[in-house]
Amino acid sequence: MIRKLLIANRGEIAVRIMRTAKELGIETVTVYSEVDRDARHVHSADEAYLLGPAAPAQSYLNAPRLLEIADRSGADAVHPGYGFFAENAGFAQAVIDAGLTWIGPHPGAIAAMGEKVRARQTMIAAGVPVVPGGAQPLRSVAEAVRAAHEYGLPLALKASSGGGGKGLKVARTLEAVEEAYTTAAREAQAYFKDPTVYAERYLDNPKHIELQILADRHGTVLHAGERDCSLQRRHQKLWEEAPSAIAPAVVAALRTTGIAAARAIAYDSIGTIEFLVSDDAVYFLEMNTRIQVEHTVSEMVCGLDLVREQIRVASGEPLGYEQAQIDLRGHAIEVRVNAEDPARGFLPVPGTIRTYEEPGGPGVRVDSAARAGWTIPPDYDSLIAKLVVWAPDRAQALARLRRAIDEFVVTGVPTTLPIARALIDHPPVAQSTYGTATLERFAHTFVAAPTEQPAQAVQPATSAGEGEVVRIEVNDRLYVVRLLDAPAQRGTLPPAPRSAPRRGEPPSTGTSKETNTNQIRSPMHGVVVELAVAVGSTVDQGQVVAVIEAMKMMNEIRAPRAGVVAGVHTAAGATVEPQAVLLTFA
């Protein structure tokens, strides 16, 4: 069994992995960026090491630094969590080449499923049905237009290296194909450094169903049931539940197809096969060769610790049980609590959490790394917590979720809790007839009460016994030290938090009521990925003039009116603050 585990991730998934590791008697090593010094995962590990600045490329995506820390700490295994390096075949191979245990599938499986074009080709060869579309990359707008004629409209243009809705654009008319293709390719390059795009028919409002796979290195491939992940915004999930409300015959076909897909690539870890279900037809969508954010839902109904199974399989152990021994019981629902404002198009809003109180009671689970006083950095995703409930049936699970949301208190930043609470009573959700388009349609009608603005607070210094307890870094390793002779500090004042936007405001177009319409301002903190105009450009009302990446989301900034650009006040690659002037009109 593994002795010491480096967790190459942050936030709630790092804390989640540590909990299982500690139960197994495994020492834990964590890493952190400069903005994550006070993060919960740093304090929860046996050892913690500084990676570097906040930017992922200089911290959590710095492979040489991660391997160096693994060597220095004496770790003999690496768990990537989800995101960052979790589905990077090159990093997995580097870990293995360093003589370490990789907690995940073999690199060949990651590579086979990591590129969506290659994955489609693999599944077609294995006889697994895929969404109608191409199995080759598109090279031009003309090829995208031909794909629209061949596969029909609406047409999805998707990044081959993508996932989570990034690099996915939908064209509903032939005239929209060019913009959808160029935007998808642009996002694919920005997010994945690979502009490859392919086309498939876009299915309107299907069910997005996932099958939880468990496979070992001894030929056993099992499943832990399916979950419905259809409630999404920007093609990213907000609500997941298990089991799904689809016909038994469809469930049987989905399970058979999922096992076949995993066997086709000799899968040997915990993973997820994703499907679209439309009119009882089952189509392979993609495979996630890692632990999922929503793995908790499956854990609640199957009774297994999926992270524990990951570690066991990576250690060479057989699963040690058969399909019939996986007993799927009851109903579980997870809602993601994100620092986003649903009333403003789910705009991500980093800031400082003022109050944080988790719910409890029977059948309630919260996976989180949040606390009162924690500042959510703008450099990573907006997830605050995952609220999961279990009950013997769906009706009781919905009632339990309603109660748990009412108990959950988060102030200082807007969150997705109010819209999750409202969804419980939305007829398509209450009746389990919802699909992938349901949430965004509902969000257009959703109005919540104004949220409280964050407040600046003094954080008292932590002490234990005599003297002040402080944290110091020596050669980038974090140590906790008690000062016996130095006077204790009475408190430190953190940087002033950024103000959260109020609910009920119209979606931002880069302008505000306090400024004139000759200026286009950034509605958020983020990085300018692209400037689509220059001085002298003539723009139409609603035209995309810039793209800003904020908390792992691409946000298109559109012109509030037609005009001619008189000034450009930022540049691609620049970091901008909320209300920073991007462009001015003549």
Can you tell me the overall shape? Answer: globular
CATH architecture of the domain at 4-103: 3-Layer(aba) Sandwich
The main sheet comes to:
8 strands, antiparallel
Strand order of the largest sheet: 13-12-9-10-11-14-21-19
Low-confidence stretches: 451-466, 488-515
Query: Given the helix and strand composition, which structural class is it?
Result: alpha+beta
Beta-strand percent range: 25-35%
**What's the mean pLDDT score?**
89
Under CATH, the topology of the domain at 4-103 can be stated as Rossmann fold
Total number of strands: 32
Percent in helix: 25-40%
Question: Helix tally?
Answer: 15
Q: What is the CATH domain class of the domain at 4-103?
A: Alpha Beta
CA radius of gyration = 24 Å
Separation of the first and last Cα atoms? 67 Å
Give a brief description.
The chain has 586 residues and is α+β, with helices and mostly antiparallel strands.
Give the SSE map.
Blueprint: E1 4-7, H1 11-23, E2 27-33, H2 40-44, E3 47-52, H3 63-73, E4 77-79, H4 89-97, E5 101-102, H5 107-114, H6 116-125, H7 141-151, E6 155-163, E7 166-171, H8 177-192, E8 197-201, E9 207-215, E10 221-233, E11 236-242, H9 248-264, E12 270-278, E13 281-288, H10 295-302, H11 306-314, E14 331-338, E15 340-341, E16 347-348, E17 351-352, E18 355-357, E19 364-368, E20 375-376, E21 383-391, H12 394-407, E22 409-411, H13 417-423, H14 427-430, H15 438-443, E23 468-474, E24 477-483, E25 519-521, E26 526-531, E27 538-539, E28 544-550, E29 553-558, E30 563-568, E31 575-576, E32 581-585
Parallel strand pairs: 1-2, 1-4, 2-3, 4-5
Antiparallel strand pairs: 6-7, 6-8, 9-10, 9-12, 10-11, 11-14, 12-13, 14-21, 15-16, 17-20, 18-22, 19-21, 23-24, 25-32, 26-28, 26-31, 27-30, 28-29, 30-32
